[in-house]
Design brief:
It is built from three helices and seven strands, in the order βαβαβββββα. With about 120 residues, the chain is an alpha+beta fold.
């Protein structure tokens, strides 16, 4: 990873605690599993009072060891990291695909709006 840290190259074969299906079979516009938000972050600003969010999922890799400049801001119920944010709040990364859900999910649209707003600063 560019900032340090490590990845699970394949969650299913390397993370024995992972049990959520992170590579969904259904269309990308359909959410299939929950993530749990923690701490104050750009995501908690978007999702406000929600602590649990339903997302889509099409990944087989995930953060294994987090780079020191980042914080984990969301995890799947099996502990797999689903979102991180830099400690200076300039970078946020999510594992799900809001680009497939923005037309039917207001919060996915808000995630993109926040990204555009931050890019214009």
């Amino acid at each position: 990873m560019a900032f340090g840290g490590t990845l699970y190259q394949d969650i299913n074969s390397q993370d024995k605690l992972a049990f959520v299906k992170h590579q969904q079979d259904s269309f990308g516009a359909y959410p299939t599993h929950h993530i749990h938000l923690n701490g104050l972050s750009a995501l908690t600003e978007i999702y406000q009072e929600q602590k649990e969010v339903l997302v889509n999922s099409r990944h087989h890799q995930a953060v294994k060891t987090l780079a020191p400049q980042f914080e984990i801001i969301a995890r799947a119920i099996d502990g797999v990291v689903e979102a991180i944010e830099s400690k200076n709040h300039n970078i946020m990364a999510v594992q799900w695909h809001p680009e497939n859900m923005w037309q039917t999910d207001q919060k996915s649209l808000e995630l993109f709006q926040k990204f555009i707003q931050n890019c214009s600063k």
